[in-house]
Amino acid sequence: MKTKMKSSRLIISGRSLLTQEQQATETSVYIEDGKITRVSSGRDPGADLTTEGFIAPGYIDLQLNGAFGYDFTNDGTSVAEVSTRLPMTGVTAFMPTIITSPRESYQQRLREIAAAAIEATGAHVLGVHLEGPFLSPQRKGAHNPDYLRPIDLEEIQGWVDTSIVRIVTLAPELDGALEAIRLLHKAGIVVSIGHSNATFAQAMNAIEAGAGWGTHLFNAMSPFQHREPGVTGALLVSSIPFGLIVDGVHSHPAAVKIAYRVKGPNAIALITDAIEAMGMQPGQYMLGDRHIFVSEDRVQLDDGTLAGSILRMDVAARNMLAFTGCSLAEAVSMASTTPACLLGLNKKGRLDPGCDADLIILDTDLRVTHTFVSGKLVYEK
Fold first, then answer.
1. Which of 125, 247, 293, 361 has the highest Cβ tally under 10 A?
2. 282: preceding bond cis by omega (within 30 degrees)
3. What's the CATH superfamily of 2-57+350-380?
4. What pLDDT is stored for residue 7 in this prediction?
5. Distance (Å, rounded) from C-alpha 47 to C-alpha 204?
6. In this predicted structure, what is the pLDDT of residue 254?
7. Which residues are annotated as catalytic?
8. What's the topology of domain 59-342?
9. Do 168 and 191 form a contact (C-beta atoms < 8 A)?
């Protein structure tokens, strides 16, 4: 690998994973002032960085509860610190996620994250994902049942008014859920079906009302059965995309392969659902106000309930490739292009002129060697 980066004008040459073409091609990417200005075939002999690996759009994580010893539900200011360290995992943009909490805590956390987003110097903060508190008690997962509550449109309007909430996960079978979905959808906020015991019909009604995503397919939702397909069936047959935790723990590799074969890369957004223990040693940690126990491969409450993950996005992309046999470009697309499209971010998740220069360099084993955010090198292995 040849490197000679000194200015805001950069030329990077290598094999580009052009997600629209679904193949790797010899490419040079030209960057100026944080934007991609030109993409041409072949390698430029004057490139600032030349790699034998791959050039790809940066990864986008839509569900991250925390990492590196920080939990966003407890401390929104920690978003800035986490943003500086995520690029080592290939993440160039992410969605801090707050799990079910007391009502009085939400506005403070949203203010903290909004302020921290301005200070963040690594991965971009795209807004906030609120996972709860309007969830099914039967499918609560690791969420504290004491904080689950009925749909409250006044509270939801307060989230809308902050302008930082971008995704809300809720259970569509709750009273008032369809009205809440319409309110959020009209405000441009993505409504995600999750932690739900809804029937197939209830889930499809939510999609018709404007729900546009599914939170961690297979997990914390009514399962597929041949006479009642449940939320799982609705997400698999509908046109909306869903998030998928590909760590080999939350879903068996065969289930991941089924989801890929049914929906394809344009409808699957890889997520980590990682907690503060991501990037840390096994031990005891916190998720909100709940004690969780972390082993080498999983996160659990003391009763064995899964409580998020310690998955990294670069590992998720490699796992997707191994579990499904998808192409390299498809694995990258599910970690970058699909999540960008879900949020309507037409300047991210692609290597096209005019797009943000949020990109990563991967070696031939799909391990991150360099990460650029707005054309600035923020990580080098």
1. 361
2. no
3. Urease, subunit C, domain 1 (2.30.40.10)
4. 55
5. 51
6. 98
7. 273
8. TIM Barrel (3.20.20)
9. yes
